[in-house]
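cache lookup: miss for this entity combination. No prior model stored, computing from scratch. Input as submitted by user K.M.:
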Amino acid sequence: MKQDAAAPRYRQLADEIAGLIGSGALRPGDRLPSVRQTRASRGCSAATVFQAYYLLESRGLIRAAERSGYFVAPKPAPLPTRAEPSGEPQAVAVSELVFQLLGTGGHEIHAPFGSAFPSPALFPLEKLRRALSSGSRHMSPAQLTSQLPGGDDELRHQIARRYLRLGLAIDPEEIVLCNGALEGLNLALQLLTRPGDAVLIESPGFYAALQALERLGLRAIELPTDPAEGADLEALATLIERHRPKACWLMTSFQNPLGGLMPSDKKRALVALLERHDIALIEDDVYAELQHEGPAPLPAKAFETRGAVLHCGSFSKSLAPGYRVGWVAAGRYAPALLRAKLSLSLSGSWPAQAALAQYLQGGEYDRHLRALRRALATQQRAMLAAIERHFPPDTRVTRPSGGYFLWVELPEGHDSLALHAAALAEGISLAPGPMFSARGDFRRCLRLNCGQPWTPPLERALARLGELIRSQRP
Amino acid sequence: MKQDAAAPRYRQLADEIAGLIGSGALRPGDRLPSVRQTRASRGCSAATVFQAYYLLESRGLIRAAERSGYFVAPKPAPLPTRAEPSGEPQAVAVSELVFQLLGTGGHEIHAPFGSAFPSPALFPLEKLRRALSSGSRHMSPAQLTSQLPGGDDELRHQIARRYLRLGLAIDPEEIVLCNGALEGLNLALQLLTRPGDAVLIESPGFYAALQALERLGLRAIELPTDPAEGADLEALATLIERHRPKACWLMTSFQNPLGGLMPSDKKRALVALLERHDIALIEDDVYAELQHEGPAPLPAKAFETRGAVLHCGSFSKSLAPGYRVGWVAAGRYAPALLRAKLSLSLSGSWPAQAALAQYLQGGEYDRHLRALRRALATQQRAMLAAIERHFPPDTRVTRPSGGYFLWVELPEGHDSLALHAAALAEGISLAPGPMFSARGDFRRCLRLNCGQPWTPPLERALARLGELIRSQRP
C-alpha cells in the first residue's frame, strides 16, 4: 500500500500498519499496540487511531476481539490465478450459453448471487419517484417532439459537472445519453469495427461484451488480466503489434467479473500505448462510482490527448436500475455516435432522463453514494468471511476495492456449470466462469454478487452452496 | 368507394354520393339535393342526411355554401405519379444526406412542416404526467433489478388487449417492448439478415428504414408503391422470384411518406405471397391508430398463418412522443428478438412503460385517440386547401385517410433540396423527396407534416413556401 503524504493522518497510519502486515513484520494473530500506546508513540489523537484501526478492519486486515484489542487477521485466501489466454484472435461462441445461464429455469431465486445488480433496497426509490413527478413538470412540451438524440440537456450538463470534479473537462455536447451504458457500448463497438475485425478484451471479461462481439461477427483477442490491477499492458503491446486490432474494450475500474482496479499510472500508460497505435478505447466504466473508500478512481479518459477514448457510464448500478440511463463521453467520435444513436433508437426515454436530471440537481446523489459504498464494503466483508467459513480451504477469491462482485476460483476438478444447475434448483443463482470467456473457459470459477444486504438466509444459502461444492469434490 | 351494408345508414348514403362524384355523374359545382329532398326521397332522418353530408365535406368531396346548400367540390389535385424503381438490388447511400436534412442548420423553426411528429399540443401531457407519478407507485422495487427484457408485463397485457379488439389473438409473451418502434424495427432487420442480403422496401420509403439497411450493409430492392393503396404485389412477386430477398419491410397503413393504406384484401394477398416464399414481413405500423374516420385498419399480421410477421407498433405518434415506448409482436421470432433486445440494451426504460400501462388501464386512450384523429383530419383538410391556394396549379398531392403527412409532387424541373435550403433559412422546415429513396430520387417531391393545428402563421408559412416554389420555376 503506497503512502501518500497528502492523505489524512489516520489514513497514513493505516497504510503504514498495512505495510507492516504486507511485509510480514506483523503476522496473523499478532496483537496491535493499544489505542493508548499508539496515541502516545505517535503524538496523535485517539480518534485518529480509532479511525485508522476501523479502516484496517474494513479492509479485512485486522480484527477486533471483544475487550482485548486488535489483532492481525488470518491471512486471506489467495487471489485467483491469472488466466493466460492464447492471444490468438478467435470467433466468439458464447452467446447461447450466456442466454441459457441468465435464465432461472423457472426456479424462484431467493439468493441472487448471480444477479448483475445491487439490491434494490440500496437505492433511493422514493426520492427517485418524486424526481419523476417533478422532473416531468419541468419539461417543455416541445421537448417531446423535437428530436434530441443526444438526450436531456440538463442531465448532460450534470454529468459534465461530475466529470469536472474529477478534473476532466468534458463538453456536454460530447455526451450522448443512451438506453443504459449497454446501448452506448454496442453503438461504440459497431462504429469502430467491421465484421471480421479483431478487438482486444479482458479475460475473464464481461459477457455482454462477448455477446456484442459475437453479434457483430468480430474476433476476440483475450488479454491476460490481473485480478487486482487489470489488463496486462506488456501482452497488450505485443498483441497490438501482432494482430492490429481495431478497438480495445476494457473495464478499467472494478472490472466485471474480477473487480480489479487499474492504477492511475497504468491507465496513463494504457492510453499512451493505444494512442501510439491509433486504436480507440471503449472504456466501460459503469462501476466508477462504487469505490468502497476514498476518492473515486480516475478513468483512463483522464489521460487522453486525442479524443479517442469513448468513456461509457451509467446510473444503473449506482442510482436507478430499470431507468436505463447511461451515456458515452465519446470524444472525437461524438458526432458519429450521435448519428448511430439517432438511427438506432432516435433518443432515450425522456421521463427517466428528466427525473435523473432533477435528482442530481437536488444535490443528494453524493450522500446516497456514500451510504451505498459503505453498504457494499460491509456486504463484501460479510460474504468474504462466509466464503472462508463454508467453501473448501483451497478456494481462491478476489478482494476488490469497489463494486459488488467476487470472483471465486474453486480447486482443480470443480465444475461451475454443474454447480450452477444444482444451486438453481435450490433457488440460489450464481454466474459460472464460462460466461466470461470467448470459448467457455474458467470452468472452475464463478462470480458471486455481494450487492445484497447480508442476512441469515443469505448466510445459509452460501453455506448450502459450500456443501454443493464439497459434494462435487472429484 | 366500396359500399358496405353493415355500415351505418349515413355512411352508406355518403358512400353512394361519393360514388356518383367518382363516376362523374355528379360534377364539380353541381348542387346536391337539399337535406329535405334527400330525407323525403330516402325515407331517412334529417340527422342521417346531415351526418352523410358532413362526412363528405370532411373528405373534401363537397362544400357547404352559406344559405345555399351543398355543392360538389372542385376536382382535387391529382395524386402524385407512381415511381417505377429499377427493381435491381442496390447498395443504399442516403444516410449522410438524411442526417444533413434532419438538422436545422441553426435556424429556429416556426413552421415545422418537416417534423416527423404531430404537435405536442395534441397529446394528453398532463394526464401522462399523473400516470408517471402513479405508475411509479405501483411498481415493485424488485422489478428494477430483475432483468425484464420483454418489458413491463401490464403494458404488454394492455397491448395484447388492443390487438384482441381488432380480432388478433397475440400472446403478451410474443410482445417485446422496445425503445420506440425504431429499435424494434432495427432489431428485427438485424435478426433476419446478414450483410449483403437483399431486402424489399417501398419507394418512396421511410428514411430510417433506408438508414438501417445502409448501416447493416444490406441491399435495397425498391418496390413501386401506389400513393393510395401501397406496395405493388405483382412487382413484389416478380422481384421475389428474381432476387430471393431475405425480408420485406413495409408500412401497410398510412405509409410514410405517401400515406397510402393497403386494403385488407391486398394485405391478405401480401401475407400469402410472402408465406409461400418463406419471407418474413417486418410490418412497420406506427400510424395504425391514426385513421381519420371509421374503424382502425387491420394489420397484415391479422392474416398470417406461420408467425412470420413481425408487427411493430408504437405510442410515439399516437400518445407519448419522447417516452420512446414501442413494441414488436414478433410471432415465432419472439424468443430470438427478446435475446437481441437483451444483448443490445437489456430492457426498456421502466418509468415510461409503467406510466403508459397506468394510462391505458385508466381507459381514456380511446377518447384521446378520437380527438386526435378528428384534429388530424381537420388539419389535413386545411393544409390541402392551403396547398391548392398557394402552390402552382399543376402540383400533385396525396389525400391520405390517416396519419399526418402529405406527399407533394411539384411540376417538372423543381428541386426540393434547393427549396429545403431556402425554406430553412426562413424558419420553415420540410422533408425533401430524396430522403425517401435509396439513391436520392424524388428530387421534385416533398413530404409536408400536417400534424400541427392550422393557424394564420402556418397559413402564411405555406404561402411563403408557395412563393419560394414559384420563384424556383425553371
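stored under new cache key. Chain A has a mean pLDDT of 92.
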